[in-house]
């Protein structure tokens, strides 16, 4: 499961697929040599699945993969279903509370405008009676319930494309999108993490030990964007325009040093 895609969310599914394949091969083969080999493979693989099932981060990442959600536990791992469900609900409530606190800290201008409008209406006619009041709206299902119910299904064959799915549906599931941003970054192997540490070492040397963690994260991310040729937009547009102009100037200066007979 090497690569730049989200991999921790695929661990449980991949191990389960491997075990199912080995069991199927074991039941169909008649050769003792193959039975011995497949039995050893099965014995070696099961502990890895059990270890993954004991990791809360892997469980959450699996749930936040829209191809699996809680259904994978209900179908394939019923003994872990209740624990996984309680885990995601508790995490969602915590994250939702943080989001609500952040949103309530900003002044609500719309409430002030609504209050002004209501006051003006009362001045127009204080004895106004609504003969056709609207029916009380039924409470909408919360964000987590809608997600777990399977809205916007992603086929299991496209489970590795979960980041694209979240990019398309982040506005519809804002609280879960915050969680997905953290947990889907978890890697199933240490190779990509080691590469990240190597990149951080190149960018943030010993003379930058007092930098804050957020600053280091931005330095490493910016460096990787430059290396990979990513052109960010929005709040990074000004910086990107400077980089683009510098690259064009460098290319122009380089082209002037090439003899005319060697130019294409």
TrEMBL record:
<protein>
    <recommendedName>
        <fullName>HAT C-terminal dimerisation domain-containing protein</fullName>
    </recommendedName>
</protein>
<dbReference type="Pfam" id="PF05699">
    <property type="entry name" value="Dimer_Tnp_hAT"/>
</dbReference>
<dbReference type="InterPro" id="IPR012337">
    <property type="entry name" value="RNaseH-like_sf"/>
</dbReference>
<feature type="domain" description="HAT C-terminal dimerisation">
    <location>
        <begin position="143"/>
        <end position="226"/>
    </location>
</feature>
<dbReference type="GO" id="GO:0046983">
    <property type="term" value="F:protein dimerization activity"/>
</dbReference>
<dbReference type="InterPro" id="IPR008906">
    <property type="entry name" value="HATC_C_dom"/>
</dbReference>
């Amino acid at each position: 499961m090497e690569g730049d895609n989200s991999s921790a969310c695929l661990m449980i599914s991949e191990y389960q697929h491997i075990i199912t394949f080995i069991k199927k091969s074991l039941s169909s083969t008649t050769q003792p040599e193959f039975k011995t080999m497949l039995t050893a493979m099965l014995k070696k693989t099961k502990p890895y699945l059990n270890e993954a099932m004991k990791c809360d981060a892997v469980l959450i990442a699996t749930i936040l993969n829209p191809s699996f959600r809680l259904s994978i536990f209900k179908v394939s791992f019923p003994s872990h279903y209740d624990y996984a469900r309680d885990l995601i609900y508790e995490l969602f409530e915590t994250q939702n509370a943080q989001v609500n606190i952040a949103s309530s800290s900003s002044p609500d201008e719309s409430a002030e405008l609504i209050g002004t409008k209501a006051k003006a209406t009362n001045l127009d006619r204080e004895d106004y009676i609504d003969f056709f009041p609207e029916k009380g709206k039924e409470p909408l299902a919360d964000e987590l319930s809608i997600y777990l119910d399977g809205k916007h299904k992603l086929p299991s064959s496209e489970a590795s494309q979960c980041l694209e799915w979240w990019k398309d549906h982040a506005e519809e599931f804002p609280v879960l999108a915050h969680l997905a941003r953290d947990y889907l970054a978890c890697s199933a192997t240490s190779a990509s993490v080691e590469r990240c540490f190597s990149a951080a070492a190149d960018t943030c040397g010993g003379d930058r030990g007092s930098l804050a963690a957020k600053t280091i994260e931005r330095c490493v991310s910016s460096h990787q964007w430059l290396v990979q040729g990513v052109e960010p937009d929005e709040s990074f547009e000004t910086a990107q325009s400077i980089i683009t102009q510098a690259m064009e100037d460098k290319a122009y200066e380089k082209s002037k040093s090439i003899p005319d007979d060697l130019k294409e």
